[in-house]
């Protein structure tokens, strides 16, 4: 299997690094440069205003000579690392202090103090007097409320770019360190996500190939660990289901083959004269008995299939559960008389209506009473009791028969299961009766429990909702 997911994350990691460098080199540099331009222009304008207000007006009042002004501007040139021009209001140069390799004109062509606008500064070569872009600020020099001239300061943009490059060095270093540290996340993804996913993918492949014994190692308690444990549980359930299906097929085949073999043997014996005509009636009754077993088995299998395919639709109605118990108990009068078994009913004095599927609940009562009679000794009794608690009705069916051992009590709900003690007493049973009972009760969102003492008694109790 190709490690496509791993490769995708590596590619994304590289793309992420490239985008970080690109964004830093463009956006961050632009933002820093813009900030430095504004800070520089504000500083230059503040200094220009201070000089224009405090030093230069004395020139127009003849208190300072042009040489004194020039000396002041030269000092500020060194301090600000900029060219300073002192001009008349018409642009005629009075004096200047220029940076190396720059000169000042005798007069500024097309001089216009308003060209700077409201931004307080402008960027460019300023009427093509410079070979590089400059930040230019201008402050008026006033005397007696009249503008006499202007102080113009030009600072090279290259100085700002140089400062920006200096500031970007630690930014790039920090970015490189962050990018290297982020490699830890890539390693974490490899060890904590990618490798477990490979194991899960391999498990899914093994399950698809039918190898349900494959187990994913689970050594973590996060979502991937939970997924691995769930897949292991699914595989176990599928394997159990597969084994269960094989067991069902084997049991069904056995339960069909046994009566069919008997029927075929008896029919062939009667046909070839091995069984004399005077015994035909006896063996025809045996064949009829085996046929009834096959009919019961087929009916039970169809009933369980309704639950397995989720096609069971309950027709819930309100009916008197105690009347149903009476009628169901009466249907066993014949077999009870033969075994001298009495059915004692402990019912409530008032009418008790429940909301359930009448036919299905009758089948539950029939199966439980049929089991109780099968496994009860002769000259014993069976009790059926109805009790109520809150909005629930509880029905108990108790016999005094062979009981159920503790190790087998949880297996009685399994399909085709017959305990060792019951095999000798239940010749006709299919082993599906209690499975059907539990499915019906659960379909009603109710519960059924069993209490048994081996060799003493067995009691089944199920609940129903009041109407």
TrEMBL record:
One of its GO terms (cellular component) is plasma membrane. It is found in: Cell membrane. Residues 251-467 form the Histidine kinase domain. GO terms for molecular function: ATP binding; phosphorelay sensor kinase activity. Residues 191-243 form the HAMP domain. The keyword tRNA processing does not apply. InterPro entries: HAMP_dom, HATPase_C_sf, HATPase_dom, His_kinase_dom, HisK_dim/P_dom, HisK_dim/P_sf, HssS/ArlS-like, Sig_transdc_His_kin-like_C. CDD domains: HAMP, HATPase, HisKA. It is a multi-pass membrane protein. This is histidine kinase. It comes from [Ruminococcus] torques.
């Amino acid at each position: 299997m190709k490690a496509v997911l791993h490769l995708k994350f590596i590619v994304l990691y590289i793309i992420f690094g490239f985008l970080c460098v690109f964004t830093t080199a463009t956006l961050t540099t632009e933002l820093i440069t813009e900030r430095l331009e504004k800070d520089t222009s504000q500083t230059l304008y503040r200094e220009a205003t201070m000089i224009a207000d405090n030093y230069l007006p004395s020139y127009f009042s003849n208190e300072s000579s042009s040489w004194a002004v020039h000396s002041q501007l030269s000092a500020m040139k060194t301090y600000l690392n900029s060219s300073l021009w002192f001009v008349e209001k018409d642009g005629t140069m009075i004096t200047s202090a220029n940076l190396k390799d720059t000169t000042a004109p005798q007069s500024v062509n097309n001089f216009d103090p308003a060209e700077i606008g409201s931004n307080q500064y402008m960027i460019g070569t300023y009427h093509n007097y410079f070979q590089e872009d400059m930040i230019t600020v201008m402050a008026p020099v006033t005397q007696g409320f009249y503008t006499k001239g202007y102080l113009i300061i030009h600072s090279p943009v290259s100085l700002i770019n140089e400062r920006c490059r200096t500031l970007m060095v630690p930014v790039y270093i920090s970015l490189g360190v962050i990018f290297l540290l982020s490699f830890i996340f890539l390693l974490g993804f490899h060890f904590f996500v990618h490798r477990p996913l490979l194991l899960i993918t391999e498990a899914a492949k093994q399950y698809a190939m039918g190898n349900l014994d494959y187990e994913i190692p689970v050594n973590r308690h996060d979502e991937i660990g939970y997924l691995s444990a769930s897949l292991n549980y699914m595989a176990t359930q599928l394997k159990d289901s597969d084994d269960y299906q094989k067991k069902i097929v084997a049991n069904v085949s056995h339960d069909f083959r046994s009566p069919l073999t008997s029927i075929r043997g008896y029919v062939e014996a009667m046909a070839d004269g091995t069984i004399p005509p005077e015994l035909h009636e006896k063996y025809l009754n045996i064949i009829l008995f085996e046929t009834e077993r096959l009919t019961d088995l087929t009916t039970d299998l169809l009933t369980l299939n309704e639950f397995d395919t989720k096609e069971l639709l309950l027709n819930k109605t309100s009916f008197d559960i105690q009347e149903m118990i009476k009628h169901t108990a009466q249907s066993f009068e014949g077999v009870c008389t033969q075994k001298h078994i009495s059915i004692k009913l402990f019912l409530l004095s008032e009418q008790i209506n429940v909301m359930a599927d009448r036919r299905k609940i009758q089948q539950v009562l029939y199966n439980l009473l049929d089991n109780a009679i099968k496994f009860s000794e002769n000259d014993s009794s069976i009790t059926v009791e109805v009790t109520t608690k809150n909005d629930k009705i509880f029905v108990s069916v108790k016999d005094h028969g062979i009981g159920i051992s503790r190790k087998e009590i949880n297996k009685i709900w399994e399909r085709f299961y017959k305990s060792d003690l019951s095999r000798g007493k239940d010749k006709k049973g299919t082993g599906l009766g209690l499975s059907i009972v539990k499915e019906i009760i659960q379909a009603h969102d109710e519960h059924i429990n069993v209490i048994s003492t081996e060799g003493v008694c067995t009691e089944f109790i199920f609940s129903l909702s009041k109407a």
